[in-house]
Amino acid sequence: MCGALRASDSGKKAVLMGWVNRRRDLGNLIFVDLRDRSGVTQVVFNEERDAAIHEKASGLRNEYVIAVTGRVKQRDPNTVNKNIPTGEVELVAEEIRLLNESKQPPFLPGDTALTNEETRLKYRYIDLRRDVMQFNIEMRHKVALAIRNYLAGQGFFEIETPFMTRSTPEGARDYLVPSRVQPGTFYALPQSPQLFKQILMISGFDKYFQIVRCFRDEDLRADRQPEFTQIDLEMSYPQPERVWEVVEGFLAAAFKAAGHDIKVPFPRMDYDEAIRLYGIDKPDLRLPAFADVRDCFTAENLQELAINPNLPVIAIRTPRVGELSRKERDDIKPMFHAKGEAKLFEDFKRVGNKFPAAAAEIAKKAGMDESDLVVLVSGSALAGPQTALPAHRKVTPQELAIYASAGLLRLALAQKYADRHGIFAKTGDPGKDFRFVWVTNFPMFEWDEADKRWNAAHHPFTSPHEEDMPKLETGVELVSDPQSALSAVRALAYDVVLNGTELGSGSIRIHRQDVQRRIFRALGMTEEEARSRFGFFLEALEYGTPPHGGIALGLDRIVMILAGAESLREVIPFPKTARAVDLMVDAPTPVGERQLRELGIVVKK
RNA sequence: GGGGACGUAGUUCAGUUGGUUAGAACGCUGCCCUGUCACGGCAGAGGCCGCGGGUUCGAGUCCCGUCGUCCCCGCCA
């Protein structure tokens, strides 16, 4: 291989095959850097030694594929290239075979400036020859392999589930596959193998996993592709802690494969706590948490500032931002998008001028350093007192609006001043670079204001907390009431979060069909609807279902973080554009009339 | 569905207030060069300024539309 030769190989005969990465023609002396996935080796063609071969070498061009036979030679000390691992040797060519020519490529794998993504995606096979892409794809392989090995070692079976399955209109839009044999009917590609893996538990395969493609027909983002890969697993009889232990185990193995030693177990945090401290259910622990500084103000202060005394006042601290100009402080305002009654004091200094005592308290409570930026988010007094009683929920909807607005601003500020606080820069210390956290005890239901009904926050197969079952029972009578006890039902659901990215999401599932029916009912589904959508599953639950639970993690996102990439497209060999198009193969395309007729499909123009 | 950025040579970019023949670097072609490694030197080729329309004596530049790529919101149980 082109990256393998070392000084210890000098004198040996070697055959190297690869691409011409670069040619340096000095006249009677030609150097060719020969590249394959393992690296680059310099090949020398000397006219004095062999005029015929030298003549052949002068015809070589970038990206030609050649085979060179020659003798490995230790380089003179003054000609060693310290920048590459093979820099101490070179191959003195004795024979060369041109395996294939290349047209002039639109860009070269060795180019320093990155070509625009449209061209890269169209000529993906050239783009993938670049070092970075070779590295990312290799790392993806190693990470997946480490996970497979770990889970297999823990007694998990990798079991395949169908790609052509049944459409379940819950959740994301399905990709549909028309049936030719039964015109007018469609398979759906799985959004996840959720029901199959639960049925595998019912079938007695008590530890299942799969590294599996999933499909969701939703709009794309830098971290969202229509087809993506999940590390999906399920086990029988687990407590949540057992699932977490397995995930921590394979993540440790995966990060090890990428060269990082992470610490397990990961810290854990209640959903409500995450909201109160970070304003989001996927907190980035690298950044400081909120401080609730309401009690730093006197009642008169709050009134003068038109702050609602019943709602939290949140101090967002962004470290080491330094002195801001008037304009810079003004620029913060448009970064704030108020939900509910949230309002912003972007200029902490002005608050300090008016209320020095309160400001001093706040600085202390928020752990503020001289150079830190602090902004305050509070509830507007204009909104009046709270309407909902917070009795059965730690965070009320009004509070959530404040926390969530503050959470988004916190991230926007951290992003904007990333260069100044330097927190996102890699330190090489996995304890600082990779801040994992389990977020647990999600609410079971979320109120859908548009449809005036409750939705499953995770998915409808998630088990509620045993101790919240009575609330489910009373709540299920009030399925169209946003104040219903359903809002207080907690789910045995958990997310694993890394640096503010949700890596995976799982739960302990419902294994009793009476509970499952009740959940469907709480979601506003009639008995008939539930049966027509999930009848096969409800039936399966009736035949001796063991308690079970599991989780699914996004492999692409894990590799993306490990690669330090800004987009999933950097870790997926053949990704799609924001409009879900594959620019290389040019898909999707219209199909012929005949193909459509066979499928019984008429396309509306 | 909505908002924003971008589109000029094969590639990365520059292009002034609307004004003569649209530039640079890399790449490409040819010639020279025996220790280069992002080799160097000389010469040269290469442009539907995304596409369509409009304003104007005159448009790469201004306006409208459209297509494409990227980012964000909605959406993603």
Question: What helical percentage do the residues reach?
Answer: 25-40%
Largest sheet report = 8 strands, mixed
Percent of residues in beta strands = 15-25%
Q: Spans with pLDDT under 50 lasting ≥5 residues?
A: none
- Backbone shape: globular
Q: Helical region count?
A: 19
Mean pLDDT: 92
Count the beta strands.
21
Distance between the termini: 54 Å
Strand order of the largest sheet: 6-9-10-21-20-19-16-11
Radius of gyration: 30 Å
What structural class do the secondary elements suggest?
A: alpha+beta
What does this structure look like?
Helices cover 30% and strands 22% of the residues. With 605 residues, it is of the alpha+beta class. It has an eight-stranded mixed beta sheet with strand order 6-9-10-21-20-19-16-11, sandwiched between helices. A five-stranded mixed beta barrel has the order 1-2-3-5-4. Strands 12-13-15-14 form a four-stranded antiparallel beta sheet, with helices on both faces. It is globular. The two termini are 54 Å apart. The relative contact order is 0.11. The model has no long low-confidence stretch (mean pLDDT 92). It binds one RNA strand of 77 nucleotides through strand 1, strand 2, strand 3 and helix 2.
Can you give keywords for this protein?
single chain, 605 residues, alpha+beta, eight-stranded mixed beta sheet, five-stranded mixed beta barrel, 21 strands, 22% strand, RNA-binding
